[in-house]
Amino acid sequence: QVQLVESGGGLVQAGGSLRLSCAASGRTFSSYAMGWFRQAPGKEREFVAAISRSGGITDYSDSVKGRFTFSRDNAKNTVYLQMNSLKPEDTAVYYCAGSRVYRSGSIRATAGEYDYWGQGTQVTVSS
Asked: Are 18 and 10 in contact (CB under 8 A)?
């Protein structure tokens, strides 16, 4: 069982930056591929980024590629999403998710592949 707690959301002007964190409980964090998803009002939850167990492999949605960076620190049981050049369309609740995987290079890009979710953190980008 893994519990995930996001933090770091807030209000920022367009062009600004935020760093989201997601802290995980448990001793097997390094066995989990992790992901970030977001959901804007009236829209479905969408994939933002994914990272492999070791952090060596990442994947991003086209809408955030080149602006967001996903990283992890397995010693601290934490993942980070550095968000730069934020746009109003990035406004959403951001969710951290975890999926136990057995291959070191595995990543997950769909919500249904994740077993554990955080409660979400609000990101609002003003124009």
From this structure: yes
- Mean pLDDT taken over the chain: 96
Is the Cβ–Cβ distance between 78 and 23 less than 8 Å?
Answer: yes
pLDDT of residue 38: 98
Q: What is the dihedral of CA 106, 116, 47, 22, to 10 degrees?
A: -90
Give SS3 for 122: strand
Contact 118/97 with Cβ under 8 angstroms?
A: yes
pLDDT of 17 higher than 90: yes
* Neighbouring C-beta atoms of residue 63, cutoff 10 Å: 14
The sign of the torsion formed by the CA atoms of 104, 27, 7, 94 equals positive
pLDDT reading at 127 higher than 90: yes
